[in-house]
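#structure-requests
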Amino acid sequence: MPARLPLPLLPHRRAFGEAVRTRRGELGLSQEALGEKACLDQTYLSGIETGRRNPSLDVLVRLAAALELPLSTLVGRMEIKDPDA
């Protein structure tokens, strides 16, 4: 069986991760502290922040609540960079 190739780091995943990281910094939270507030493992949260993970809607809602923002505001903070620019 051939080895699985890693998924590409998609621009929208990176943008969402950066929005999470920025807000976490604004609140002065470590990844561990945010993970505890959102009931997420720190390594999973790291994967979200770096764009390697594709979180479910349930996880998005928990993250937004832990970051003290409506989900729509958190998503609205995404700045998707065009990889061809």
